[in-house]
Amino acid sequence: MTIPDLTLRVSEIFYSLQGETSRTGLPTAFVRLTGCPLRCGYCDTDYAFQGGETLSVAEIMKGVGDYCPHYVTVTGGEPLAQKNCLDLLKALCDGGYSVSLETGGALDISGVDPRVSVVLDIKTPGSGEVENNHWDNLELLKPRDEIKIVICDEADYRWACALLREKGLTERCPVLFSPVPGRLEPAQLAEWILHDRLPVRFQVQLHKVLWGSERGR
Q: Rounded to two decimals, what is the model's pTM?
């Protein structure tokens, strides 16, 4: 396998249980890249907006390989804000890993290696970033990709329900609804989903249930 001679700014590389998506609970190596063009009001990884260290793709691959993982998640910040992220994703796939990408939904995903499982955020009005949703991304989603919508309040929930219908989201790929911790009670969101019989997956962040806000988890 040829590894490109490129570098990225990396906030952290760590090993934990996947806390979200259909991969919840699976031991996973995480590569968190530095930088993000968005400023969502509920962001819990704002420490990744800046700092980190510059690593080559080869160094990142070694850092991941030290954990001997099957699953690897590239996240941020916003990983696609660094153009060399596309090369990293390809290198990880070439390395035999099952790779997922967590992206905020504001940047084009057309260049992402098709072997990667994309977890695409759609930003609600409550996030403060709804105007930055890159709607063309929806046409690029594969059946094994996932859409994540983080819900701040009832207005966000009603907005998301309308979006499900208007965009036919559940016909494209699985859709995940998550409550914002401290702003919406998880049980309330669960009740709304059940009442409306939505074909979506409810989720909370498993890593926070286990370890709270501890960094690198």
A: 0.95
